[in-house]
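May I ask for an example protein's residues together with how it folds?

___
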Amino acid sequence: MLVAEKQIEVRYAETDQMGVVYHANYLVWFELGRTQLIKDLGFEYAEMEKQGVLSPVVDLQISYKKSLKYGQIATVKTSVKSLGPIKVVYSYEVFNDQGELCSIGESTHVIVSKEDFKPLKFKKKFPEWYAAYEKAMK
């Protein structure tokens, strides 16, 4: 299984009054991880948009295990958990610089027409991308 890794230095602006990373920032990091995975597979999300296709999030789950603080390095590990004709589920793990698991999550995406937001079949619209995802899951 292909696992993409993206390192992120925790910035002061990402922390809350308690000095830990504000919970919503993990969602931004998931997006960075997903984008890295797509790049590692040889594709660009921007190319999808140029073709009039978007990939909105339709479900998101996250569980927090350990706090991250300003100055630490977060490593986001991203993989394709499942793939279907219409949706893709990505899996995320966020580790601190000591290798401790800080957060886990999943996001479910579909692809839709930018024009009318009607769902599209991923395999039909982007067969090479779909095949790369199938291979990445093995």
Notes: The longest strand covers residues 73-83.
